[in-house]
């Protein structure tokens, strides 16, 4: 059985002398079968097997004090072309009345496997370095673009053009804030609280002239979402905050905008609430603009619905994702998210 094994096997006695070995063992390690049987295992070849640690493990296995299970060692041999990585398994065999000890030693050459693993690790490490470089370049590019847009907005004499450029600047900064969060995340997930905080700082820096008059606040739980979902949520927050800053506080009114996010299982609600002048009543002002269209499209992408409510004062716009309905105990006839 040992001799016909396709895997390298060696049968040893209690003195670690070779009783039999498979042809695959002799071939793999370039050992002459004629001179191996009856010889000490540790003296085979050019003596490369004579390792104190290996001797101790095999001796301990023969005594029943230890097991050699997936033991890795490097076999150094010029005859074999240098260093080979091996995995050894040794088992004590019951033989006759137990007076004669037998040890079955299985040997696997894992050199190629370890080389492949090292190559994979090296490629992953190189990929991580390249990704960091790309993220750094993207961050710099976004900052440059945002600066150019803001500079153009300040130089524009047209109030309408200035407003469009400021909106574009805020949108670029929202993407830059997301990029920073993604760069800091190793698992491709984004914590929403710090992300929304940074997002509001970026939007406020470009659109709020007097932070004593207008302020942005974030009320968010400790939710963490996938990066692709965070992109949509971030763009929704940017659009809704921009809309509130543009329309809710005419004539230099004071105010406070609150961005909130709360999750209950698969259900979640993202809302932006202001305490401004409220929703417009005239038909022209109530006509949906680009920002509203963007928010509706993003909500559809998130499988959520948009809800607009009068905040008394102000307006609250909520993006509600509720695949599971919960019964309201105060009103058993209805449903509550």
Written account of the structure:
- The protein is an alpha+beta fold.
- It folds into 2 domains: 101 residues, Beta-Lactamase; 221 residues, Histidine kinase-like ATPase, C-terminal domain (Heat Shock Protein 90), CATH 3.30.565.10.
- It has 8 helices and 14 strands.
- A 5-stranded antiparallel β-sheet has the order 2-1-5-4-3, sandwiched between helices. Strands 7-9-10-12-11 form a 5-stranded mixed β-sheet. The chain has a two-stranded antiparallel ribbon with strand order 6-8.
- The radius of gyration is 35 Å and the shape is elongated.
- The two termini are 69 Å apart.
- The C terminus is likely disordered.
Keywords summarizing the entry:
2 domains; Heat Shock Protein 90; 8 helices; Beta-Lactamase; disordered C terminus; alpha+beta
Describe the largest sheet: 5 strands, antiparallel
Poorly predicted regions:
333-337
Mean pLDDT across every amino acid position: 83
CATH topology of the largest domain: Heat Shock Protein 90
SSE topology sketch:
Elements: E1 9-13, E2 18-21, H1 23-28, H2 52-62, E3 68-77, E4 82-93, E5 102-109, H3 111-155, H4 159-184, E6 189-191, H5 192-207, E7 214-220, E8 224-226, H6 227-247, E9 255-264, E10 267-274, H7 283-286, H8 290-301, E11 305-310, E12 315-321, E13 326-327, E14 335-336
Parallel strand pairs: 7-9
Antiparallel strand pairs: 1-2, 1-5, 3-4, 4-5, 6-8, 9-10, 10-12, 11-12, 13-14
């Amino acid at each position: 059985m040992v001799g016909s094994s396709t895997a390298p096997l060696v049968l040893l006695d209690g003195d670690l002398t070779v009783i039999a070995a498979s042809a695959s063992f002799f071939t793999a390690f370039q050992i002459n079968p004629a001179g191996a049987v009856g010889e000490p295992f540790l003296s085979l070849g050019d003596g490369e097997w004579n390792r104190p640690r290996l001797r101790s493990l095999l001796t301990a296995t023969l005594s029943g004090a230890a097991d050699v299970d997936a033991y890795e060692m490097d076999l150094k041999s010029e005859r074999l072309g240098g260093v080979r990585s091996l995995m050894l398994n040794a088992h004590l065999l019951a033989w006759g009345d137990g007076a004669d000890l037998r040890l079955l030693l299985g040997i696997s050459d894992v050199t190629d496997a370890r080389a492949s693993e090292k190559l994979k690790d090296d490629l992953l490490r190189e990929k991580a370095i390249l990704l960091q470089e790309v993220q750094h370049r993207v961050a710099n590019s976004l900052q440059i673009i945002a600066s150019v847009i803001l500079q153009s907005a300040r130089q524009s004499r047209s109030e309408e053009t200035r407003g469009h450029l400021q909106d574009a600047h805020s949108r670029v900064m929202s993407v830059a804030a997301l990029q920073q969060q993604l760069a800091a995340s190793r698992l491709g997930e984004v914590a929403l609280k710090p992300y929304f905080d940074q997002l509001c700082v970026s939007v406020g820096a470009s659109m709020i002239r007097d932070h004593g008059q207008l302020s942005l606040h974030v009320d968010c739980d400790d939710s963490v979402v996938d990066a692709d979902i965070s992109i949509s949520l971030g763009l929704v927050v940017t659009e809704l905050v921009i809309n509130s800053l543009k329309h809710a506080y005419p004539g230099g009114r004071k105010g406070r905008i609150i961005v909130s996010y709360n999750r209950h299982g698969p259900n979640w609600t993202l809302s932006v609430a202001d305490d401004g002048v409220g929703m417009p009543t005239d038909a022209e002002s109530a006509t949906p603009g680009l920002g509203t269209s963007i928010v509706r499209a993003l909500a559809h992408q998130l499988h959520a619905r948009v809800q607009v409510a009068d905040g008394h004062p102000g307006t609250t716009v909520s993006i509600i994702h509720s695949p599971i309905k919960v019964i309201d105990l105060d009103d058993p006839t209805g449903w509550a998210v």
